[in-house]
Protein backbone atom coordinates (compact mmCIF):
# COMPACT_ATOMS: atom_id res chain seq x y z
CA UNK A 1 0.00 0.00 0.00
CA UNK A 2 1.29 3.43 -0.88
CA UNK A 3 1.94 6.01 1.80
CA UNK A 4 0.21 9.37 1.61
CA UNK A 5 3.58 10.91 0.84
CA UNK A 6 3.93 8.61 -2.17
CA UNK A 7 0.42 9.49 -3.33
CA UNK A 8 1.11 13.21 -2.97
CA UNK A 9 4.40 12.84 -4.84
CA UNK A 10 2.54 10.98 -7.59
CA UNK A 11 0.06 13.83 -7.98
CA UNK A 12 2.90 16.34 -8.25
CA UNK A 13 4.90 14.15 -10.63
CA UNK A 14 2.01 13.83 -13.07
CA UNK A 15 1.45 17.59 -13.19
CA UNK A 16 5.19 18.27 -13.41
CA UNK A 17 5.67 15.86 -16.31
CA UNK A 18 2.78 17.40 -18.24
CA UNK A 19 4.33 20.84 -17.84
CA UNK A 20 7.80 19.62 -18.83
CA UNK A 21 6.43 17.95 -21.97
CA UNK A 22 5.08 21.31 -23.12
CA UNK A 23 8.49 22.94 -22.65
CA UNK A 24 10.35 20.49 -24.88
CA UNK A 25 11.93 22.24 -27.86
CA UNK A 26 10.61 25.63 -26.69
CA UNK A 27 12.34 28.44 -28.57
CA UNK A 28 12.87 31.99 -27.37
CA UNK A 29 10.58 33.28 -30.11
CA UNK A 30 7.81 30.97 -28.90
CA UNK A 31 8.42 31.93 -25.27
CA UNK A 32 7.82 35.59 -26.11
CA UNK A 33 4.52 34.82 -27.86
CA UNK A 34 1.10 35.60 -26.40
CA UNK A 35 -0.86 34.52 -29.50
CA UNK A 36 -2.78 37.78 -29.64
CA UNK A 37 -3.43 37.91 -25.90
CA UNK A 38 -1.62 39.41 -22.93
CA UNK A 39 -0.03 36.37 -21.30
CA UNK A 40 3.17 35.31 -23.00
CA UNK A 41 4.57 31.82 -22.59
CA UNK A 42 7.48 33.27 -20.63
CA UNK A 43 5.13 35.33 -18.48
CA UNK A 44 3.08 32.23 -17.68
CA UNK A 45 6.26 30.34 -16.77
CA UNK A 46 7.34 33.13 -14.40
CA UNK A 47 3.90 33.26 -12.83
CA UNK A 48 3.74 29.48 -12.38
CA UNK A 49 7.25 29.28 -10.93
CA UNK A 50 6.77 32.19 -8.53
CA UNK A 51 3.51 30.94 -7.04
CA UNK A 52 4.90 27.42 -6.88
CA UNK A 53 7.66 28.75 -4.64
CA UNK A 54 5.18 30.75 -2.56
CA UNK A 55 2.69 27.89 -2.04
CA UNK A 56 5.47 25.55 -0.97
CA UNK A 57 7.04 28.07 1.37
CA UNK A 58 3.75 28.82 3.13
CA UNK A 59 2.97 25.12 3.46
CA UNK A 60 6.35 24.08 4.85
CA UNK A 61 8.54 26.97 6.04
CA UNK A 62 8.42 28.33 9.59
CA UNK A 63 8.86 31.82 8.14
CA UNK A 64 7.19 31.79 4.71
CA UNK A 65 8.47 33.79 1.78
CA UNK A 66 5.93 35.89 -0.10
CA UNK A 67 5.98 36.88 -3.74
CA UNK A 68 7.89 40.15 -3.47
CA UNK A 69 10.64 38.61 -1.31
CA UNK A 70 11.32 35.52 -3.44
CA UNK A 71 14.77 34.93 -4.88
CA UNK A 72 13.66 35.91 -8.38
CA UNK A 73 16.00 35.11 -11.27
CA UNK A 74 17.89 38.34 -11.93
CA UNK A 75 15.83 40.07 -9.24
CA UNK A 76 12.21 41.17 -9.05
CA UNK A 77 11.63 43.35 -12.10
CA UNK A 78 8.85 44.94 -14.10
CA UNK A 79 10.03 43.68 -17.49
CA UNK A 80 11.77 40.57 -18.73
CA UNK A 81 14.99 40.33 -20.70
CA UNK A 82 14.01 38.91 -24.11
CA UNK A 83 17.03 36.60 -24.17
CA UNK A 84 17.63 32.85 -24.19
CA UNK A 85 19.64 33.19 -20.98
CA UNK A 86 16.69 34.80 -19.20
CA UNK A 87 14.33 32.10 -20.45
CA UNK A 88 16.77 29.43 -19.27
CA UNK A 89 16.97 31.07 -15.83
CA UNK A 90 13.17 31.14 -15.58
CA UNK A 91 12.82 27.47 -16.53
CA UNK A 92 15.59 26.58 -14.05
CA UNK A 93 13.71 28.51 -11.34
CA UNK A 94 10.58 26.53 -12.14
CA UNK A 95 12.59 23.30 -11.95
CA UNK A 96 13.98 24.43 -8.60
CA UNK A 97 10.42 24.76 -7.30
CA UNK A 98 9.69 21.19 -8.46
CA UNK A 99 12.71 19.91 -6.52
CA UNK A 100 11.72 21.83 -3.39
CA UNK A 101 8.18 20.44 -3.51
CA UNK A 102 9.51 16.92 -3.97
CA UNK A 103 11.90 17.23 -1.02
CA UNK A 104 9.28 18.80 1.26
CA UNK A 105 6.48 16.37 0.42
CA UNK A 106 8.80 13.39 0.44
CA UNK A 107 9.91 14.28 3.96
CA UNK A 108 6.39 14.60 5.40
CA UNK A 109 4.85 11.86 7.53
CA UNK A 110 1.39 10.47 6.80
CA UNK A 111 0.01 12.31 9.83
CA UNK A 112 1.32 15.67 8.60
CA UNK A 113 -0.88 15.55 5.51
CA UNK A 114 -3.92 16.15 7.73
CA UNK A 115 -2.33 19.15 9.46
CA UNK A 116 -3.66 22.59 8.61
CA UNK A 117 -1.06 24.63 6.77
CA UNK A 118 -1.18 28.22 5.59
CA UNK A 119 -1.81 29.75 2.20
CA UNK A 120 -0.58 33.21 1.33
CA UNK A 121 -4.05 34.78 1.46
CA UNK A 122 -4.54 33.79 5.10
CA UNK A 123 -6.64 30.66 4.70
CA UNK A 124 -5.54 27.31 6.05
CA UNK A 125 -6.20 23.86 4.65
CA UNK A 126 -4.84 20.34 5.14
CA UNK A 127 -1.38 19.84 3.67
CA UNK A 128 -2.60 17.16 1.26
CA UNK A 129 -5.16 19.60 -0.15
CA UNK A 130 -2.47 22.22 -0.67
CA UNK A 131 -0.37 19.70 -2.60
CA UNK A 132 -3.36 18.94 -4.85
CA UNK A 133 -4.11 22.66 -5.21
CA UNK A 134 -0.53 23.37 -6.29
CA UNK A 135 -0.52 20.48 -8.78
CA UNK A 136 -3.79 21.82 -10.22
CA UNK A 137 -2.16 25.24 -10.58
CA UNK A 138 0.71 23.72 -12.57
CA UNK A 139 -1.78 21.84 -14.74
CA UNK A 140 -4.01 24.88 -15.32
CA UNK A 141 -1.14 26.95 -16.66
CA UNK A 142 0.20 24.01 -18.65
CA UNK A 143 -3.09 24.16 -20.54
CA UNK A 144 -2.47 27.83 -21.31
CA UNK A 145 1.03 27.06 -22.56
CA UNK A 146 -0.26 24.20 -24.66
CA UNK A 147 -2.88 26.37 -26.35
CA UNK A 148 -0.53 29.26 -27.09
CA UNK A 149 2.14 26.94 -28.48
CA UNK A 150 -0.44 25.10 -30.59
CA UNK A 151 -1.53 28.41 -32.11
CA UNK A 152 2.01 29.66 -32.70
CA UNK A 153 3.15 26.33 -34.18
CA UNK A 154 0.02 25.91 -36.29
CA UNK A 155 -0.72 22.56 -34.68
CA UNK A 156 -4.10 20.93 -34.30
CA UNK A 157 -4.61 17.53 -32.68
CA UNK A 158 -2.44 14.43 -32.66
CA UNK A 159 -3.61 11.85 -35.21
CA UNK A 160 -6.37 9.65 -33.70
CA UNK A 161 -6.94 12.14 -30.87
CA UNK A 162 -8.65 14.98 -32.70
CA UNK A 163 -12.18 16.02 -31.96
CA UNK A 164 -13.04 17.72 -35.22
CA UNK A 165 -14.71 21.07 -34.84
CA UNK A 166 -16.77 20.90 -38.00
CA UNK A 167 -16.41 24.57 -38.86
CA UNK A 168 -12.57 24.43 -38.69
CA UNK A 169 -10.53 22.20 -40.98
CA UNK A 170 -7.39 20.79 -39.36
CA UNK A 171 -6.00 19.42 -42.64
CA UNK A 172 -2.24 19.80 -42.74
CA UNK A 173 -2.02 20.79 -39.09
CA UNK A 174 -2.35 17.49 -37.29
CA UNK A 175 0.52 16.07 -35.26
CA UNK A 176 1.90 12.62 -35.87
CA UNK A 177 2.13 10.45 -32.76
CA UNK A 178 5.59 9.05 -32.06
CA UNK A 179 4.38 5.46 -32.25
CA UNK A 180 2.93 5.75 -35.78
CA UNK A 181 4.74 4.16 -38.71
CA UNK A 182 5.06 6.05 -42.00
CA UNK A 183 2.51 3.69 -43.54
CA UNK A 184 0.06 4.15 -40.70
CA UNK A 185 0.41 7.94 -40.77
CA UNK A 186 -0.04 8.12 -44.55
CA UNK A 187 -3.15 5.95 -44.45
CA UNK A 188 -4.64 7.94 -41.60
CA UNK A 189 -3.95 11.28 -43.29
CA UNK A 190 -5.55 9.99 -46.48
CA UNK A 191 -8.65 8.97 -44.55
CA UNK A 192 -8.83 12.35 -42.81
CA UNK A 193 -8.30 14.23 -46.09
CA UNK A 194 -11.36 12.52 -47.52
CA UNK A 195 -13.31 13.38 -44.38
CA UNK A 196 -12.15 17.01 -44.55
CA UNK A 197 -13.38 17.18 -48.14
CA UNK A 198 -16.79 15.88 -47.07
CA UNK A 199 -17.04 18.38 -44.23
CA UNK A 200 -15.52 21.47 -45.80
CA UNK A 201 -15.71 20.96 -49.56
Description:
- The chain is mainly α.
- It has 2 domains: 4-153, Four Helix Bundle (Hemerythrin (Met), subunit A) (Up-down Bundle), CATH 1.20.120; 156-201.
- The chain contains 6 helices and 2 strands.
- It has helices spanning 4-23, 28-31, 41-60, 84-106, 127-153, 182-200; strands spanning 116-118, 124-126.
- Strands 1-2 form a two-stranded antiparallel sheet.
- Strand 1 and strand 2 (124-126) form a beta hairpin.
- Helix 1 packs antiparallel against helix 4 (84-106) and helix 3 (41-60) packs parallel to helix 4.
- The chain is globular, with a radius of gyration of 21 Å.
- The termini are far apart.
- The mean pLDDT is 91.
SSE blueprint and pairings:
Elements: H1 4-23, H2 28-31, H3 41-60, H4 84-106, E1 116-118, E2 124-126, H5 127-153, H6 182-200
Antiparallel strand pairs: 1-2
Helix pairs in contact: 1-4, 1-5, 3-4, 3-5
Amino acid sequence: MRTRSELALGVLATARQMLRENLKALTLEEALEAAGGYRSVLGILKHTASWSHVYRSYAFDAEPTHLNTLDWPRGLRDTIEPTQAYLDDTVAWLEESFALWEASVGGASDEEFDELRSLHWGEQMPLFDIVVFNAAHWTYHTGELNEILAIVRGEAWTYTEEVEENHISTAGHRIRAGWMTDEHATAYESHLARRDQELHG
